[in-house]
Amino acid sequence: MVSATDISGSVAKQLADVEQANAEAIRAAADLVLGVIRADALVYTAGAGHSLAAVAETFYRAGGLACVYPLYHPDLLPLHGAVSSTKTERRSGLAAEVLAEREPGPDDVLVVFSTSGSNPYPVELCLEAHKRGTAVIAVTSRACVAAAPKRSSSNLVEQGTVVLDSLVIPGDASYPPDAPRTAPLSTVVNAFLWNLVLAQVYDRGAAEGLDVPLWRSSNVEGGDEANAALLEKYSAIVPRLR
Predict the structure, then answer these.
(1) Which end of the chain is least crowded, N or C, by CB within 10 Å?
(2) What backbone torsions phi and psi does residue 214 show, to the nearest 5 degrees?
């Protein structure tokens, strides 16, 4: 019988390993995000399937960056059709369509979350971004990318300006350890990696006197008032804030 201690211990080890393995990449990703803030530009975030949970974590979230533009298409979300969401992220051409809503530029950064990193949608997002001079932070698993079927001309590891490796094993499941079938880790690790980047952005931004635009919880005293100026600034360029 599995115990909570077994699961929590394995997750804690995964997160510790991830932080250690990505120390340099986290700093490089924070460099890119700080550049966005200095330029008063945008961080575009994208994913498909359950990687959209990571996109939601980046957007309009207490403690999160306000200068975030989430890239989204309803057909990519399993809640709108599970099987069709898988088919959609394998469809070539969708990335250009989604980016046409608002094209990123050289001062912006694109963050793509995809554990397998092999389907056309995440890979083509990177290719389209590079055409526009936009740097890419790829949040993926090198092991999963290596094991995944080749469905694109490239993969997320090859296309990332910076690659954050979740260390998730092929299949994503983590339990039982000798033959994993359940307890997937990618959602937990993706959120952790993004928070490590945000922590560096905050500390280093504060050290140089940079005003890092961060949301406050609307359920604490003064939260709505603190967010009002951010909403006024970003709603004009981020339609999903309206």
Answers:
(1) N
(2) -125, 140
CA 225 to CA 163: how far, in whole Å? 36
- 42-91 pLDDT, tens digit each: 999 999 999 999 999 999 999 999 999 999 999 999 999 999 999 999 99
pLDDT digits (tens, 9 = 90+) for 135-151: 999 999 999 999 999 99
Q: How far apart are CA 42 and CA 92, in angstroms?
A: 25
SS3 117: coil
With a CB cutoff of 8 Å and minimum separation 6, the contacts of 141 are: 115, 116, 117, 165, 166, 167, 168, 169, 170, 186
Query: Tokens 């094993």 label which residue?
Result: 169
Comparing C-alpha atoms, which of 167, 182, 187, 152 is closest to residue 78?
Answer: 187
With 0-12 / 13-18 / 19 or more C-beta atoms within 10 angstroms meaning exposed / middle / buried, residue 113 is: buried
Quote the tokens at residue 109. Answer: 């950064």
> With helix as H, strand as E and coil as C, how does 49-81 read?
HHHHHHHHHHCCCCCCECCEEECCCHHHCHHHC
Q: Is 152 exposed, middle or buried (0-12, 13-18, 19+ CB in 10 A)?
A: buried
